[in-house]
C-alpha cells in the first residue's frame, strides 16, 4: 500500500463489531439502560457511526433481537409429531438456553421495555403460529394431548424450558443444583413429555 493512501473502511466488519457490542450491552443493561456511547466505545467506533449505520437505540435493539430470535429458531427446530419430538424439543431448548443465555435475557428486557407491540411482532407471530399449527396437527392425529388447546400447550412447553434460563438462581435455591445439572434437564424434559402426553 502506498504511503498516504488510507485503507478502505471495512463497513460490514464495523457493522458486525457494533452489533456484537450492542448485543453485549443490551444483554447486560437492556435497551433503556444502554447508551449509544457505551456501544460505540465497546465497538471501537464513534457514536456518529452507530447512528449513521443503525439509527438509534430502538432500531439497534430490534436488530439485535431479530438476529438472536432467528438464531434460536434455527438452532431449536420444532417438529411436533409425538411425545418423543416434544421431549427432544424440550431437551434442545434447555441446552440452547444454557449455551446462549443472551436470547432469554434480551426477551426479558424486551418485556420490560415494551407494553404493546414488540419489534418484528408480526413475523414472530407467524413463526409461533406455525409451531402451534404443528402441535394442533399432532393433537388431531392423537399423538399429543387434547386436554389443552394447542396454543396453550405451546406456551407451557416454552415456559418449562424458559423458566430456569430466566431465573437460574431460583432453580438453584429450590433444588440445590444449577440449570446445567442433568437432574434439572431430565426433569424439564419429563415434565414436557407428561404435559403433552395424550
Automatic annotation (TrEMBL):
<feature type="DNA-binding region" description="H-T-H motif">
    <location>
        <begin position="35"/>
        <end position="54"/>
    </location>
</feature>
<dbReference type="InterPro" id="IPR036271">
    <property type="entry name" value="Tet_transcr_reg_TetR-rel_C_sf"/>
</dbReference>
<protein>
    <submittedName>
        <fullName>HTH-type transcriptional repressor</fullName>
    </submittedName>
</protein>
<dbReference type="Pfam" id="PF17926">
    <property type="entry name" value="TetR_C_21"/>
</dbReference>
<dbReference type="GO" id="GO:0003677">
    <property type="term" value="F:DNA binding"/>
</dbReference>
<feature type="domain" description="HTH tetR-type">
    <location>
        <begin position="12"/>
        <end position="72"/>
    </location>
</feature>
<dbReference type="InterPro" id="IPR001647">
    <property type="entry name" value="HTH_TetR"/>
</dbReference>
<keyword id="KW-0238">DNA-binding</keyword>
<dbReference type="InterPro" id="IPR009057">
    <property type="entry name" value="Homeodomain-like_sf"/>
</dbReference>
<dbReference type="Pfam" id="PF00440">
    <property type="entry name" value="TetR_N"/>
</dbReference>
<dbReference type="GO" id="GO:0006355">
    <property type="term" value="P:regulation of DNA-templated transcription"/>
</dbReference>
<dbReference type="InterPro" id="IPR050109">
    <property type="entry name" value="HTH-type_TetR-like_transc_reg"/>
</dbReference>
<dbReference type="InterPro" id="IPR041467">
    <property type="entry name" value="Sco4008_C"/>
</dbReference>
Amino acid at each position: 500500500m502506498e504511503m498516504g493512501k488510507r485503507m478502505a473502511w471495512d463497513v460490514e466488519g464495523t457493522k458486525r463489531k457494533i452489533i456484537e457490542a450492542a448485543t453485549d450491552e443490551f444483554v447486560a443493561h437492556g435497551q433503556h439502560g444502554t447508551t449509544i456511547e457505551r456501544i460505540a466505545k465497546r465497538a471501537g467506533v464513534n457514536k456518529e457511526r452507530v447512528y449513521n449505520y443503525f439509527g438509534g437505540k430502538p432500531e439497534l435493539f430490534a436488530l439485535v433481537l431479530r438476529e438472536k430470535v432467528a438464531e434460536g429458531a434455527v438452532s431449536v427446530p420444532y417438529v411436533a409429531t409425538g411425545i418423543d419430538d416434544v421431549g427432544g424439543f424440550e431437551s434442545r431448548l434447555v441446552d440452547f438456553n444454557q449455551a446462549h443465555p443472551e436470547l432469554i435475557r434480551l426477551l426479558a428486557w424486551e418485556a420490560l421495555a415494551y407494553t404493546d407491540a414488540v419489534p418484528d411482532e408480526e413475523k414472530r407471530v407467524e413463526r409461533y403460529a406455525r409451531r402451534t399449527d404443528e402441535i394442533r396437527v399432532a393433537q388431531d392425529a392423537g399423538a399429543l394431548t387434547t386436554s389443552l388447546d394447542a396454543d396453550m400447550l405451546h406456551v407451557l412447553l416454552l415456559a418449562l424450558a424458559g423458566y430456569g434460563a430466566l431465573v437460574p438462581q431460583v432453580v438453584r435455591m429450590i433444588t440445590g443444583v444449577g440449570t446445567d445439572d442433568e437432574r434439572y434437564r431430565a426433569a424439564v424434559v419429563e415434565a414436557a413429555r407428561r404435559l403433552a402426553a395424550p
